[in-house]
Inverse folding.
């Protein structure tokens, strides 16, 4: 049994994992080389038999079927499944005959070889520049290491933002960052128990910011609120957060949400950590 049988390439089994060039060459090259060797072995065998004008019978026919079976295994392992089915059909056909014409089988092999070459052209790999690789799937990056348990939804958005940044989808990166920021804005509104014009879940940024600002003004004005250290710290924290949310809203959120700006890598320091 071929050692590769029923073994898909790792990037087929894990399509969204980032693979280095070294890993691709180390793991994948063996499979492609094996496929090439089998194709060449079948080709040489058929050429020799065709030159001798000998039909394929007995052990020679069994050998051809065995080589075709190896070809099917490699096609399947390289995720060339449609071709694996075609090769299997040829194996079944050869199993029903007692003699085969090597010239005809050579034509079948040539057709399969062309099909394999064309199919392999569809196996595309996305290249990520080295300085951006750490943002893809957030590998080797601690920016959001505490987010999963505290802000799981925001964590998901920042994770997606990192992936978008890594593959040069900068507007999508900003969009996901703004979705993460919006989760923080709504959480602050819920924490302060403010009442925007609409339900907090559906209120716009401006409504939420306005409602939070009114609550901060109420706390600052005194009235029935005693100006304790905790209240003063709360006012400072909320005021600082509001300044950030206002800036994000005016500089990024409105522009990306309403298709006013296309972002490029030059915005990296401002729009993404």
């Amino acid at each position: 049994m071929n050692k590769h049988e029923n073994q898909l390439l790792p990037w087929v089994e894990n399509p969204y994992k980032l693979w280095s060039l070294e890993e691709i060459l180390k793991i994948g090259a063996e499979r492609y080389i094996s496929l090439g060797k089998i194709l060449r072995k079948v080709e040489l065998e058929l050429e020799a038999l065709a030159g001798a004008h000998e039909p394929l019978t007995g052990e020679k026919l069994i050998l051809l079927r065995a080589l075709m079976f190896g070809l099917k295994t490699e096609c399947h392992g390289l995720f060339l499944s449609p071709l694996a089915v075609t090769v299997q059909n040829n194996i079944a056909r050869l199993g029903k005959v007692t003699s085969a014409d090597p010239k005809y089988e050579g034509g079948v092999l040539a057709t399969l070889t062309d099909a394999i070459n064309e199919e392999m052209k569809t196996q595309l790999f996305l290249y990520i520049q080295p300085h951006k690789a750490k943002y893809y799937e957030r590998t080797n990056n601690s920016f959001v290491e505490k987010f999963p348990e505290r802000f799981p939804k925001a964590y998901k958005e920042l994770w997606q933002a990192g992936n978008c940044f890594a593959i040069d989808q900068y507007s999508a990166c900003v969009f996901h960052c703004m979705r993460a920021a919006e989760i923080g804005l709504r959480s602050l509104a819920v924490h302060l128990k403010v009442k925007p014009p609409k339900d907090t879940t559906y209120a716009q940024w401006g409504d939420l910011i306005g409602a939070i600002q009114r609550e901060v003004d109420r706390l600052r004005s005194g009235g029935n609120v005693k100006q304790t250290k905790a209240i003063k710290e709360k006012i400072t924290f909320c005021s600082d957060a509001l300044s950030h949310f206002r800036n994000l809203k005016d500089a990024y959120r409105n522009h990306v949400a309403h298709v006013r700006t296309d972002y490029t890598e030059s915005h990296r320091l401002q729009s993404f950590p």
The radius of gyration is 31 Å. Residues 1-5, 268-273 have pLDDT under 50 and may be disordered.
